[in-house]
Structures are given as structure tokens and as C-alpha cells.
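Fold this sequence, please.
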Amino acid sequence: MLRRVPDIFRDVTEYRGNSAALELAQGTFNEEALYQAIEEYAVQWYELQHRPASVLDLCAASGLAAGRVGRRIPVDFIDLVDVDEAALDYAIHRLSDGTPVCKHVVDAASFRPERKYDLVLANSAFHHIEDGRKVDFLKQARLALAEDGVILLGEHFLPPYSSFGGFRKAVESFYERLIPELLDQGEDDDAIRVIRRSGLYCWEGQYEYKVSWNIFLWDIARADLKIHEYRVLWAPPALRKFMAGTVAVALKPVATPG
């Protein structure tokens, strides 16, 4: 028996293949907080290293994360990875300020870098990787890091769950709190409809694959990564103890003995 789609996921706008619609959603209060946190992490890296950064942007879409980092610190070059070539072409047009930019039309979990990067950006990327490939995605990000490099990841985490039914309830619980907050913040109606669509994709188990914080911790451990720093940018009070909400994370490799 098919379960009725929850009301919270009705009245949606499709955003796949539509960079303008996607960027509307990327401008909401919690998404903006993610970009700002990633910029600040990049500034911290630059203040320690004192050299232009080589940047890899995974699931880059229209290149917002890389572009914003490039406006805050000197950047040597930028590589963009995404399966959407049209979005990458839009990104390259946006980033045409003299910084060398290269696009890679490939799945981010399958990308095999030919060089190392100081900053690996993965803003709203992790939830676009299927659960069974998330560890591979993280391993590739780790292998792409230069010495003293850092992975800057922005993500939305669900409350904990232990079954498919529990997963769907966790998705509903997350969006039942996020959507009213977006409305209270006066966010654009079209942006909210895009976000409703992203929630529906997640609820359906396609294209958007959000996970809980505890599953994320398990995945980064299996990828030989550790949390260097994190910031909770938005979390509803009832779910904060579960680390459910919008979180920016700086990841570094686990040091190997010897």
C-alpha cells in the first residue's frame, strides 16, 4: 500500500536542471549561513597558510561555494565537479574573473583527481550521494587533499532513525520544522517550493539522500576522516540534541601512525 505524500511536501517547484530555481533555495537564511561558514573556514585556512588556495568544488552546481570562497581569499585555481554540464557552464561564466577554472562533468563519488587541493568544498553535496556511496565520496575527497588541506562540508542532518519507516518520519520531522521557520523568516515563496521538492525527493528516496548526524559520523570514520571543527547554524530546539539541522563541518584526515 502506497503511503500518502505528507502535506508538507505539496505545492512544490522542480529545480533539477534549473540553476535559477536552485539558487533561489540556496539564498535562504540557513543556506546563506552555510556559505558564510565555509567562507570563514577558508579565511582561517588562508590566515594559517599564507598562500593562494587550490580549490575543488564537489557537486558544484552553479559554482556558488567556489565563487564565494574566491571573493574572500586569493585562489590559485578552481576545479568544479558536477554531473550537470549546463550548471557547470553557468558557473564558469560566473567565475570568469581571471582565476583558472576547469569543469569536470562526472559524478562526484567517481571523480579521480589528478592533482591535490588545499580546499575541498562539499556544500550541500553529501545528500546528493546515495547512502551506499557516501563513504567512497568522502574517501575521494580525502585523497584529493593537499598537505594541510581541509574539506569544508555544509549539510542538513535528519533526526536519528533505524528503519525505512523511521527514516521517512525523520524527513517529515525535519521539514515540518524547517518550512515554518522559512515562512517566519519571510523567505521567497518560490524558494520554499523548491525546498519542499527537495524534501519530497528525500522522502521518496531519490536524488536527495539526507542522513542523521550519527550516520554521518560513522561514514567519516570509515573514510579515515575526523572533525576538525563544526558549527550548528540552525537546529530546532526539539531536535538540537540529535544534531538535526544545518551544520557546517571542517574535516581533516586521520593521522596515520609513523
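The chain has eight helices and seven strands. The chain has a mean pLDDT of 94.
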